[in-house]
Amino acid sequence: MQMSHVASKGLQRFLFGKFCQILTYKTEWYGKQLVLADRHYPSTQRCANCGHVKTGKDKITLQGNASHHTKHNEYVCYQCGYCNDRDQNAVLNLLALIQ
Ligand SMILES: [Zn+2]
């Protein structure tokens, strides 16, 4: 099935909305709290060690960071020198939201 860009984006939004609906239902069912990060929360750009948020040319993209010669899956803080896997750094930032 071939789909236009607009239709596929609409399908993606619908499925994510459905996923959030199921998560809400399940967390209420088990008496838990669902915490959703703001869509603009910089979990992959924020340092889990010092809180510095990368902006502009310092940001990590899917291709990494060309000016600092880092790969897309590694996080290096240019403020404090903290190094970690990009995904693990993002998880630590998301965990900081609930603490
Ligand atoms: Zn840092």
List keywords for this structure.
99 residues; mainly alpha; two-stranded antiparallel sheet; 2 strands; binds zinc ion
Structural class: mainly alpha
Tally of strands: 2
Measured distance between first and last alpha carbons: 44 Å
What gyration radius follows from the Cα positions, in whole Å?
17 Å
Beta percentage is 5-15%
* Low-pLDDT segments, ≥5 res: none
Q: Please tell me what the overall shape is.
A: flat
Helix amount:
25-40%
Hetero ligands: zinc ion
Determine the mean pLDDT: 92
Give a quick account of the main beta sheet: strands, pairing sense, barrel closure.
2 strands, antiparallel
Order of helices and strands: HEEH
Oligomeric state of the chains present here: single chain
Biggest sheet strand order reads 1-2
Number of helices: 2
Topology diagram in text:
Layout: H1 5-29, E1 74-76, E2 83-85, H2 86-97
The structure holds zinc ion.
Zinc ion binds next to loops.
Structure overview:
The N and C termini lie far apart (44 Å). The model has no long low-confidence stretch (mean pLDDT 92). The chain is mainly α and 99 residues long. Strands 1-2 form a two-stranded antiparallel ribbon. The chain has helices at 5-29, 86-97, and strands at residues 74-76, 83-85. It has two helices and two strands; from the N terminus they run αββα. Zinc ion binds next to loops. The site of zinc ion has 8 residues, from loops.
